[in-house]
Design a protein that fits this description.
The complex is a heterodimer.
Chain A lengths: L1 H11 L1 H23 L6 H8 L1 H34 L2 H12 L6 H12 L4 H8 L13 H25 L3 H9 L4 H12 L1 H16 L3 H7 L6 H10 L4 H25 L2 H5 L1
Chain B lengths: L10 E10 L2 E11 L4 E5 L6 H9 L6 E6 L2 E2 L11 E3 L11 H11 L4 H14 L15 H13 L5 E5 L7 H18 L2 E6 L2 H7 L2 E6 L2 E6 L1 H6 L4 H6 L4 E11 L2 E6 L2 E6 L10 E5 L5 E2 L7 E12 L3 E7 L5 E7 L3 H4 L5 E6 L5 E4 L3
Parallel strand pairs in B: 3-8, 3-9, 6-7, 7-8
Antiparallel strand pairs in B: 1-2, 1-4, 4-5, 9-10, 11-12, 11-14, 12-13, 14-20, 15-19, 16-17, 16-19, 17-18
Helix pairs in contact in B: 2-3, 2-4, 3-4
Classes of the chains: A mainly alpha, B alpha+beta.
Chain lengths: 275, 364
């Protein structure tokens, strides 16, 4: 018994070791800066909670992430529903559409949205050509651009837990609802949605946690006009060289992510979420 | 208990068929289920019985023919517009709702006022013996209790027809017998048309007013339990409904409703099944419990043979007798009877009244 454990421990050791070396130790350094730079004390944390700029960045981040979460989970629910309950042809198509984005770099996807959404981009040109609008609609270099790009990136991450929750729904239960006189809409709202609720909560928490730390997509698509926490930390580190504030914000970000992870763990069983 | 009788529907299948490509799950079915009857669809798996039930429920779209409810064509009416109650195999309860909410579901769908819902749910939950469990979720109940919830949910809106798809298949034997009795009582009290699918012949015989026996997508026979058990129209039905001896008969002479032929040296007379004709391969079908050992009475059929094996099953003793032709027949006699005490190797005469057997066309 102890022998088997020992063998497993040796086989598993490289991963935690790597994590400690490249994540935990450096982050302890970052945490140290948050209490020592520029002077020893809690000054940087006081700034995090009182500074107007920081507060507006935090509120914007919370808002953008909430919108992105709602949009991603809603879209992902529709996709998963068709993936699980749709005809076989549609199921194949959805599989490809969900998987292909994983193979494309986040940078390329952000630039792709830039090409579509910018003022002289494909969407605005097309709308002007057919005469629906006379001036371009600003869809990028603002919060809207970030939301579109982030939602696009995060939808597949919500699809997997939702599809998994839907696969656990017994088709006979849906048939029973129909046999008892319920129409399609009623079955959806009173049976399918409540039965997949753990999947919905799980998907929402996963998307929110991912969204909070987003950097490249909002940086490119908002063009610096709708700065979120991750980008703000980057600016503090490399442009205003305020390492103490950047570190304090990083620590706070980590605390929020860990808290959300804890809630996720309490609400849904992770192995069921992806099972 | 206030047994309120309510509307029950008559269901008819007219030339009904369901094909999946070249596979015919159901062919040319013509069958009428009278209002208020308890009809069992019996057959092995893949016989078409479940396909027919699912067509009645509206979950399977027939490819030919039609289904009528009281003469009205409902073949393509969606399941949720049929107003039939249904009990599913595995119950299919809503796992996220309590017992009371499960039972209330069809009433809420029908927009029944909430005071009425509470009253009817309460009444129905009591009626199926789950009074103390109304607040529980299905996963906190035993199999038998879940079964009762499924029944309550299917009956609470007074459906004109109740469809049951192998409702007892997941339960153990003693529980199953208790629920069978209860189901009969509920049928009497409600007066609803019950259509019950099973592959268990003893369940079918115990419960039904009429049994419809299916094989390979075809209706083989329909009749009362006694009719199909004692007067099977085919070898398949005869064998499916329980143990039976099938003894080849030659040189058959037919008279009205009766025939006399030979097995080896012995002359045998019996009533004849519809479809059994001169020139066919014919078999005598006789159930083990209709045979006895001893002196034949006037007009009885008799076959002489040797006891080759004895099997005790508690209630009775089964004797296997080998005839001079090599044919083996089985008869069951009461335990502790004289016949049961006979040793293996004894020479015996097996006899039975003429009406105890039945001559069939050998369709296999």
């Amino acid at each position: 018994m102890s022998n088997t454990w020992g063998r497993y421990a040796i086989l598993l050791a490289p991963l935690p070791l790597l994590l400690v070396l490249v994540y935990v130790l450096p982050f302890l350094g970052v945490a140290k800066w948050s209490f020592t730079d520029p002077e020893v004390g809690l000054g940087q944390y006081v700034r995090v909670f009182t500074d107007e700029t920081v507060r507006s960045v935090v509120i914007r981040t919370a808002r953008v992430c909430a919108i992105v979460t709602i949009a991603s989970v809603t879209l992902a629910y529709a996709i998963s529903y068709n993936w699980v309950f749709g005809p076989p042809g549609r199921q194949r198509l959805i599989e490809y559409c969900v998987l292909i984005p994983f193979w494309i770099s986040v940078l390329i996807r952000a630039f792709g949205w830039l090409i579509l959404l910018r003022n002289n981009g494909i969407i605005n040109s097309a709308l002007m050509d057919i005469g629906l609008i006379s001036r371009p609609i600003t869809m990028v270099r603002n919060e809207f651009g970030s939301i579109v790009g982030m939602t696009h990136f995060l939808v597949p991450f919500a699809v997997f837990p939702l599809a998994s929750a839907m696969r656990q729904v017994d088709a006979r239960v849906l048939q029973a609802a129909s046999g008892l006189g319920a129409g399609r809409m009623r079955i959806f709202w009173t049976v399918t949605v409540p039965m997949t609720l753990p999947g919905i909560i799980g998907a929402a928490l996963i998307v929110y946690v991912f969204a909070i730390g987003f950097f490249i997509t909002p940086a490119i698509l908002s063009g610096g006009r709708s700065v979120m926490v991750a980008e703000f930390i980057y600016l503090q580190l490399f442009q205003t060289v305020n390492w103490g504030l950047a570190s304090a914000l990083s620590v706070m970000l980590l605390v929020v992510v860990v808290l959300l992870g804890f809630v996720l763990h309490k609400v849904v069983r992770l192995d069921k979420l992806f099972g | 208990m206030a047994a309120h009788q309510h509307r029950a529907s008559q269901l008819s299948a007219v030339d009904l068929g369901k094909a999946y490509g070249s596979f015919h799950a159901l062919r040319d079915l013509n069958l009428t289920i009278r209002a208020g009857e308890f009809v069992t669809l019996l057959g092995p798996s893949g016989s078409g019985k479940t396909t027919f039930l699912m067509s009645l429920a509206g979950f399977t779209d027939p490819t030919s023919g039609r289904i009528e409810e009281d003469g009205v064509d409902i073949t393509h009416r969606p399941a949720d517009k049929r107003n039939f109650g249904m009990v599913f195999q595995g119950y299919a309860l809503f796992p996220h709702l309590s017992v009371a909410d499960n039972v209330a579901f069809p009433l809420k769908v029908r927009k029944v006022p909430s005071a009425d819902i509470a009253k009817r749910v309460d009444e129905m939950v009591k009626r199926v013996g789950l009074a103390g469990h109304a607040h529980k979720r299905p996963d906190g109940l035993s199999g038998g209790q879940q079964q009762r919830v499924a029944l309550a949910r299917a009956l609470v809106f007074d459906p004109a027809v109740l469809l049951l798809d192998e409702p007892f298949s997941a339960l153990d034997k003693s529980l199953r017998e208790g629920l069978q009795t209860e189901l009969k009582r509920v049928h009497r009290e409600t007066g609803t048309t019950f259509v019950f699918v099973t592959h268990d012949q003893s369940e079918a015989l115990a419960l039904s007013d009429q049994i419809a026996i299916f094989d390979h997508g075809r209706l083989m026979q329909i009749g009362s339990p006694r009719e199909v058990y004692l007067r099977p129209s085919s070898r398949f039905v005869a064998e499916f409904l329980g143990r039976i001896n099938l003894v080849p008969i030659t040189d058959c002479a037919f008279s009205t409703g009766r025939a006399t032929g030979r097995h080896g040296e012995a002359a045998i007379s019996a009533p004849i099944a519809e479809g059994a004709r001169q020139g066919h391969h014919l078999v005598l079908a006789v159930r083990p419990e209709h045979l006895r050992v001893g002196e034949p009475g006037a007009g009885d059929n008799a076959l002489a043979g040797t006891i080759s094996d004895k099997v005790y099953n508690g209630a009775e003793m089964n004797l296997q007798v080998v005839l001079p032709t090599g044919q083996r027949i089985v008869l069951s006699v009461p335990d502790r009877s004289e016949a049961a005490a006979l040793p293996i190797g004894s020479e015996v005469t097996v006899c039975w009244p003429v009406d105890g057997g039945y001559i069939l066309a050998d369709d296999e």
